[in-house]
Structures are given as C-alpha cells and as structure tokens.
Amino acid sequence: DQQVKQNSPSLSVQEGRISILNCDYTNSMFDYFLWYKKYPAEGPTFLISISSIKDKNEDGRFTVFLNKSAKHLSLHIVPSQPGDSAVYFCAASPGGGADGLTFGKGTHLIIQP
Amino acid sequence: EPEVTQTPSHQVTQMGQEVILRCVPISNHLYFYWYRQILGQKVEFLVSFYNNEISEKSEIFDDQFSVERPDGSNFTLKIRSTKLEDSAMYFCASSETLAVTYEQYFGPGTRLTVT
Lengths: 113, 115
Hints:
The complex is a heterodimer of chains A (113) and B (115). Chain A has 113 residues and is mainly beta.
C-alpha cells in the first residue's frame, strides 16, 4: 500500500543543471507535503514544504510544485551542486500536529561534476 | 541551531531482550515521534506523543513497544522483547505545536541490531 510513490529510485544530473524529483500520492486526505534530504548514517533533514492550498513554494535553490488535481508534486533544485547528492524523500501528512508522516521510498540524486 | 539528539548511535541486542532507545527533542517542541527504517525500505511512522500521552500510532506499534517522557527533556522508545525483524534504524523527531506548518525535525537515528 504505497500512498506516497517516488517512481525513480535514482537520478543523475550534471552540476549546474536543474534536478527535478517527482512524487505522486493517492490519499486525498493528505493536506501537507514535505521534502527531506538524507545522507548515509544521518537522519532525514527537512528541506521544504507546501500546503495543499498552494501550488508553489520557493526557498533559495529549492522549489516545490504541487498539482493537487493530479496528486503530483515535484522538487526542483537549480542550479544543482555536488553537495546535493543524497537521497530525497517525499513525505505527506493529513495536516494535524500529531499525524505521522507517510514517506515515499526515496530518490537517490547523484550530481555529476 | 537546535537539533534532536539520540543515544546510543548503535545498539546490539539478543533476541528476546528489552531495549530502550533515547531521544532529546528540540527544547521548545511539544510533539514527539518515533519512526523506523528497515534496511532498503522506506521510513515508517511508529507513534506520536503529545501532552504526555500517545496521540497516534501505526499498526507496527504493537504491545511490544512503549514510549515515555520520563523527565522534561528525554523521550524514550522501549521494545520489550526484541525480535530479529526489529533490526532497523530508529529515528526520533519533534515538531512545534500549533504551528501553521508541520515540519518534523529528525535526529541522527539509532541503529538497532537484533541477533
């Protein structure tokens, strides 16, 4: 039962270009979406989030787009830097403070020099 | 910058033994969570805790698991009788209460190995 899906296990992008990571969800109750970055042997690090009432949120090099009708969101990183190489997780929440996050399986982003 | 801390970083235990994983959430946060990630799988929610009681729990969080906030800073996860399949990374997280956003901040994790 994959309520949050990241269909690309890995993605390779050249340094300086745009990285686009995709995520789909099936549960209409999800109201809040988050992206996390994870290095090996570390915990997930919060990157950026978006509420379902918005379709775009931007923070520096990171932009998240939400298409609620398609139940699809994407994370854009531009320009991509070597330090961006990590596993990126999409996560979703029904929006209450006590709700656990539902994570996707992650996409391993590799930035090529 | 405030961060969530977890101890120990690695715990090895024998099947059937009890383990306690410890976490110190960010000091002004009032929601606390435990997640686990079995090797090669996704991060899974276990339990959330607010106002000294469990708020939500997943199907994974059965009677073998319990959580406690024994003092003003620590948040613990106890597994009463560990099984081989409990081997995983366990992450603690915390978030602010009454925030308009729902970011959860994760600790570095405890790797639990059950032999």
